[in-house]
Specification:
CATH class: Mainly Alpha
Strand content: 5-15%
Number of domains: 1
CATH topology: Outer membrane efflux proteins (OEP)
Structural class: alpha+beta
Shape: elongated
Distance between the termini: 32 Å
CATH superfamily: Outer membrane efflux proteins (OEP)
Number of strands: 6
Number of helices: 14
Strand order of the largest sheet: 2-3-5-6
């Protein structure tokens, strides 16, 4: 009874879909818990809270704070941790009671012959240690998976923030271009009225205006879609981003540290998914050691006591399995095959990472060359605009010529924006392939520091609310 009093009891924790949905919808970027989380991980106090402007450096930890996929990864790690405790458990002894009754007992003697038997299992060949080692490796793999999920979350935030910023800039440029084209149409209408041009020229200009309007509508649609995807990647509703200025730095910075051979080697040895695959392989090796150890039978000590009609009888038994018909060869063969599978998966993962790095580096170099070309084109268009402005002041050209030059400058600006977006996309792919953010001071955030930060910082405020 005393042992049973210390047992765990079941506590129901029902899930209410309505309450869960309400909590998710109530998430905001002015959350006090988020403020503490940002201050801890940014290493500075946030005086102007809530922030009015958010960039990748502040949105990434916000996603780490809110996104439910990280809660799932943390929960999986806690399950694996509990598995270590399970693996370290000792087998319990068993107590048997065998009552007996003698119908032919002599007068004056008790007819009952009770027999008590105790079975004490003793594991041999270090099975418990090997079982614990396997569970520890699986727990380490689950811990590293937190960093892998975090990189995926950051990647989605970066992609969606870039798409939103690019679509927002494109919308502004297309609005300016549309205004220029509408002015061109008005001038052409005036010239058509006096017979200076043909109807074909005006129609061509009107078609160009309608095309720009279609492009503007498409850009606004992409901006709205990217806005919604960004909220999803942060783990908040779209309304949480209302009134928030979202910034993305399009400037080109030196990224020699990302394209170097050293960065490639660090990624091939230190990416969280690669380290996790190594832990999975170590777990299969521990499993193989455990199955080999199971060839050696465990020992059972069987002390017993019997009260036989006034006589106290004690016994000491020893039981063990005879490995004559089955020497655990099947499970050993399965464990060897699983170890080979884990090794093949590790090689496959490294090959995949090598391909990702090579593609990202090549794409980044091509995108940088394309951006340089678009920059040259934009510089030439600006010189052309300055030249036409001077000619307009001198009376050598008219207003229509100036508007056409402005229109060409707008087209070149859009081309430069596309080049900048492609460069940032390729840079994001390179960061993901290396798991090394470019904007971190002093190099990359190590996998261990990122994992430790994420595993100890679940959304504590929301957890308390759920418990209440």
């Amino acid at each position: 009874m005393l042992l049973c009093a210390g047992c765990a009891r079941f506590e129901p924790q029902p899930i209410s879909p309505a309450d869960t949905a309400a909590r998710l919808d109530a998430r905001r970027l002015d959350d006090d818990g988020l403020k503490k989380f940002l201050e801890t991980n940014l290493g500075r106090e946030l005086e102007n809270w809530p922030l009015k402007s958010w960039d990748l450096k502040t949105l990434s930890p916000a996603a780490f704070y809110f996104h439910p996929s990280l809660d799932v990864a943390r929960a999986q790690w806690r399950v694996a941790q509990a598995g270590v405790r399970t693996a370290g458990g000792h087998p319990n002894p068993t107590l048997g009671l065998t009552p007996g009754y003698d119908f032919s007992v002599a007068n004056g003697l008790s007819p009952w012959i009770p027999f008590f038997n105790l079975d004490v299992p003793v594991e041999t060949a270090g099975k418990r240690g090997k079982r614990i080692l396997k569970a520890q490796q699986l727990s380490e793999s689950a811990r590293l998976n937190i960093a892998t999920i975090a990189w995926q979350v950051r990647s989605h935030v970066r992609v969606n923030l870039l798409d939103f910023a690019a679509a927002n800039r494109r919308s502004a440029l297309l609005e300016s271009q549309l205004a220029v084209q509408e002015r061109i149409v008005k001038l052409l209408e005036q010239r058509l009225a006096v017979g200076a041009i043909s109807q074909l020229e005006l129609t061509t200009a009107r078609i160009a205006v309608n095309r720009t309007r279609l492009e503007l509508g498409d850009a606004r649609l992409k901006r709205a879609e990217a806005h919604g995807r960004l909220a999803e990647s942060l783990g908040v509703s779209v309304s949480a981003l209302d009134g928030v200025e979202l910034l993305f730095d399009f400037s080109e910075r030196a990224v020699d540290g990302l394209t170097s051979t050293e960065a490639r080697q660090i990624a091939l040895r230190g990416r969280s998914d690669i380290l996790g695959a190594l832990s999975d392989y170590a777990a299969t090796e521990a499993e193989l050691r455990l199955q080999i150890a199971k060839q050696f039978p465990d020992v059972h000590l069987n002390p017993g006591y019997q009260f036989d009609q006034g006589d106290n009888k004690w016994t000491l038994g020893l039981t063990f399995e005879l490995p004559v018909l089955n020497q655990n060869q099947g499970p050993i063969a399965e464990s060897k095959a699983r170890r080979e599978e884990a090794a093949a998966r590790f090689t496959e993962l490294q090959a995949k990472v090598i391909g990702e790095i090579d593609r990202a580096v090549a794409a980044y170099r091509v995108a940088r060359e394309q951006l340089a070309t678009s920059d040259s084109l934009l510089a030439a268009e600006r010189q052309q605009q300055q030249s036409v402005e001077a000619q307009l002041k001198a009376g050598a050209v008219d207003q229509l010529d100036m508007l056409n030059v402005q229109l060409e400058l707008g087209v070149a600006t859009l081309a430069q924006l596309d080049g900048q977006a492609r460069l940032q996309q390729s840079l994001g792919a390179l960061e993901d392939a290396l798991q090394r953010p470019m904007d971190e001071t002093g190099g990359a955030t190590s996998t261990s520091s990122l994992t430790n930060m994420l595993q100890r910082t679940p959304n504590q405020a929301q957890t308390k609310k759920q418990k209440q």
